[in-house]
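step: validate -> pass
step: tokenize input -> pass
step: predict -> running
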Amino acid sequence: MLKIKDLTVKAGDKVILENFNLNVKNGEIVAIMGKNGSGKSTLCKALLNHPDYKKEGTIIFNEEDITDSKTEDIAKKGIYYLMQNPTEIEGVTNASYIKEARKARGIKEDVFTFNKELNKIIEETGIDKKYIHHNINERLSGGEKKKNELLGLYALNPSLILLDELDSGLDIDSLKNISQAILKYKEKTNASIIIITHHDSILSYIKPDIVHVIWDKNIKLSGDYTLAEKIEKQGFSWTINMTRSDNNE
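step: predict -> pass
step: emit ->
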């Protein structure tokens, strides 16, 4: 599914990730945890070839090298990024965006089929119909924006979902409902998920198969869901001190 090999990412002269390696299998849920500023969100942006970052290394997605591909081409290949603060776009409705994005992904359908698909998405996500003809994320709260992004998730059929601090700005009910919608999509498609987070609130709903902890530009510790539980109770300093102790033995 996804193979990242020896990835180094810089913002200007600052090295944020260095010789970073990560493998994600088909249908696997992987959590990337770390303190603020550790490079978690940078990883997502590097995967999508964000222009603010310089990269060295290799990124393989579904057996294809996408390291230097354009962001829009990477998205077309089946990677969906649900960011911390989804962008507001004036003058572009969800319906028009979804229609053009599906066309770009090679989905051919007439108006009747498209409208039928939209109604199906509304039913599956539980999103109010009014959002279909609403400008993308315009004048919506943080929680409403993230719920609105589910339209794109269901409409574009990605095989890899990047969840960047999904729980940021969400109340408990919204987090639960959005998480359930994402899991419902995963059950239908067997998509892989990478969860970027610094605590385990979202992980209690979308339980990962593996948890990686990142600091000092790389993954330093890995484990199952219980690792996230320990971090929630004892903080990241526990993991850093533990690994340093192991290295000194």
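step: describe -> The CA atoms of residues 47 and 83 lie 13 Å apart.
step: cleanup -> pass
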